[in-house]
Structure formats: structure tokens, C-alpha cells
């Protein structure tokens, strides 16, 4: 359930990307779509930057013992 909101932003980002591809540059909404896409991509990047170190610290290679488990 915790991933559902992030998944929704991911899907919305893909929709914005496709919509921007089919919106002419001369259309008045084009700059707004660019801004919305940039904001959603920045949000997803910040989420990934926060999750990656946590995920790496939780990953234990085969044969190793996690100190946090002790």
C-alpha cells in the first residue's frame, strides 16, 4: 500500500510525457505540461535518492551477516 501513491505519480509522469509529445510547441498548455513533467520527474528522482541507500543497507550478500540483525 505504501508504493501505491508513488506508482500513481510514476504513471502520471508517463502520461504527461506522452501528452507532451503530442502537444504542439505553439499550444498554450505546452509550457505548463513541461513544468508538470519536470516537477513529477524531480519528485520521483528525490524518492529514488532517498530509497536507494536504505535498500542497499538492507541488502545482505550471501554468506555475510548483517550487523543490524545482531
* Rg computed from alpha carbons, rounded to a whole number of angstroms: 18 Å
Query: What's the story with the biggest beta sheet?
Result: none
- Percent of residues in helical segments? 55-70%
Spans of 5+ residues with little confidence (pLDDT < 50)?
none
**Shape by Cα distribution:** elongated
What is the SS-derived class?
mainly alpha
Distance between the termini: 29 Å
What do the pLDDT scores average to? 83
H and E string: HH
Oligomer: single chain
The count of DSSP E runs of length 2 or more, i.e. the number of strands, is 0
Domain DH: 1-50
Organism: Xiphorhynchus elegans
Pfam family, one: RhoGEF
GO cellular component, one term: membrane
Structural description of this entry:
It is built from 2 helices and no strands. The chain has 70 residues and is mainly α. Helix 1 (4-21) packs antiparallel against helix 2 (30-58). The protein has a domain at 3-21 and 31-51. Helix content is 67%, strand content 0%. 1% of the residues are buried. InterPro entries: Abr/Bcr (IPR037769), DBL_dom_sf (IPR035899), DH_dom (IPR000219).
Descriptive keywords:
70 residues, 67% helix, 2 helices, mainly alpha
Summarize the structure.
The chain is mainly α. 67% of the residues lie in helices and 0% in strands. The model has no long low-confidence stretch (mean pLDDT 83).
Amino acid at each position: 500500500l505504501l508504493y501505491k501513491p508513488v506508482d500513481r505519480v510514476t504513471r502520471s509522469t508517463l502520461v504527461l510525457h506522452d501528452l507532451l509529445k503530442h502537444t504542439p510547441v505553439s499550444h498554450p498548455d505546452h509550457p505548463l505540461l513541461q513544468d508538470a513533467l519536470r516537477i513529477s520527474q524531480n519528485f520521483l528522482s528525490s524518492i529514488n535518492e532517498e530509497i536507494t541507500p536504505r535498500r542497499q543497507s538492507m541488502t545482505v550478500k550471501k554468506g555475510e551477516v548483517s550487523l543490524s540483525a545482531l
